[in-house]
């Protein structure tokens, strides 16, 4: 037995043995699609983890690279006929790889520190917006066009509705995409909800930290999220955050992604939304489709007001992956290029300039795709629905 035995002991042996090496996960893995190498696939990574855990393989730089370049899109799980719980395998591995401070994590740790401190995040957001206006901010970085000043929340304080909902505002979502919150509020109030916002009291949910492998930091952040004394409903309009909060607050309150909640009111929306003579192409975030199982709901909601078309890549990841585009820019860019090629193919098949919007329900995806030079506007599905509401009700804006 090698002296390296003892690594990855938190990985359940039964979970590893569930994989029968059939390879049906391969077409659904974005990093395998880019490299064509088995060690960059779920099957290959499971074999590496098993070998390292048993002490049969050294944890070399190449092995670490293969494991650390997993985007954790979880596209492999729905495709697996054996029901491998891949997220329960790769999560503790990522956490162990990043338990100790190392130089390669320094920049990422600093960035994640910023998002947990809202005043600091807003300061950097304002600074970036100025740099963008002066055209000195690198366009290749996955950052959308930002506003120097944020619009204020405009909540109907006189609402007599007994249906109360808490809108989780989060960190990056609030600093960079405040308008999506305003549109969410407009839709919910139009449906008769009394909306409150979580604000800085809740702050970051820790999803970015957990996804990056900083499990201990994520647990500390998650422990500070207020737990209500009642089972009031929380709604979240960031797919990555809603996936995380459903797990964090499972015992304390009902957490719904905004697309789930709106889909429950699809008949009501059909009465209050107006038809738009525009076409929307849907990009499905991994944490919405693969983790939460929400897919057709977005399409059916947008079809109320728009002509909707979809990509034909079976929900393949765009490469954003939380902070993955910052920590693994080379792999992330290669994965993104496949998504761009598919988007261009679908648009060209319809006819150029006939697709007006690319809809994505996750800020990470929107930000990462925004630097690609698309002629198509990238928008949150909620903002597109609020646009259809706007002539009569909406006070938000994209």
Helix content: 40-55%
Instruction: Give the CA-CA distance, first to last residue.
Output: 59 Å
Which spans of ≥5 residues are poorly predicted at pLDDT below 50? 393-398
Strand content: 5-15%
CATH superfamily of the domain at 13-97: Alpha-helical ferredoxin
Number of strands: 8
Summed over residues and divided by their number, the pLDDT gives a mean of 91
**What strand order characterises the main sheet?**
2-1-3-4
The secondary-structure element order is HHHHHHHHEHHEHHEHEHHEHHEHHEHEH
The CATH topology of the domain at 13-97: Fumarate Reductase Iron-sulfur Protein, Chain B, domain 2
Given the C-alpha coordinates, what overall shape results? globular
Largest sheet: 4 strands, parallel
- Structural class, from helix and strand content? alpha/beta
């Amino acid at each position: 037995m090698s002296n390296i035995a003892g690594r990855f002991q938190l990985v359940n042996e039964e979970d590893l043995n569930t994989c029968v090496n059939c390879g049906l996960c391969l077409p659904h893995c974005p990093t395998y699609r880019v490299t064509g190498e088995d060690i960059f696939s779920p099957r290959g990574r499971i074999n590496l983890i098993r070998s390292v855990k048993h002490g049969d393989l050294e944890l070399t730089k190449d092995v670490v690279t293969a494991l650390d370049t997993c985007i954790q899109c979880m596209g492999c799980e729905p495709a697996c006929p054996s029901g491998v719980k891949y997220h329960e395998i790769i999560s503790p591995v990522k956490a162990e790889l990043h338990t100790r401070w190392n130089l390669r994590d320094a920049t990422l740790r600093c960035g994640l520190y910023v998002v947990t401190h809202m005043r600091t995040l807003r300061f950097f957001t304002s600074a970036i917006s100025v740099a963008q206006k002066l055209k000195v901010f690198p366009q290749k970085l996955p950052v959308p066009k930002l506003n120097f000043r944020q619009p204020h929340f405009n909540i109907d304080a006189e609402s007599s509705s007994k249906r109360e909902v808490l809108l989780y505002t989060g960190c990056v979502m609030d600093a960079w995409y405040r308008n999506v919150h305003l549109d969410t509020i407009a839709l919910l109030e139009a449906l008769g909800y009394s909306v409150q916002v979580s604000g800085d009291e809740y702050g970051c949910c820790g999803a970015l930290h957990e996804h990056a492998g900083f499990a201990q930091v994520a647990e500390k952040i998650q422990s500070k999220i207020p737990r209500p004394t009642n089972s009031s409903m929380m709604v979240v309009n960031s797919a990555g955050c809603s996936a995380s909060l459903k797990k964090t607050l499972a015992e304390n309150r009902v957490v719904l992604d905004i697309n789930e909640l709106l889909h429950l009111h699809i008949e009501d929306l059909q009465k209050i939304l107006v038809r738009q003579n525009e076409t929307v192409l849907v990009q499905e975030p991994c944490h919405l489709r693969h983790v939460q199982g929400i897919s057709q709901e977005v399409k059916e909601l947008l079809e109320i007001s728009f002509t909707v078309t979809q990509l034909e890549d079976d929900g393949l990841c765009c490469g954003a992956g939380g902070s993955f585009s910052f920590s693994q820019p080379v792999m992330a860019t290669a994965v993104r290029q496949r998504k761009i090629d598919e988007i261009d193919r679908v648009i060209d098949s319809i006819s150029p300039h006939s697709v007006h919007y690319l809809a994505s329900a996750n800020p990470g995806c929107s930000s990462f795709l925004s630097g690609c030079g698309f002629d198509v506007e990238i928008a949150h599905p909620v903002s597109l629905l609020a646009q259809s509401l706007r002539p009569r009700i909406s006070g938000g804006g994209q």
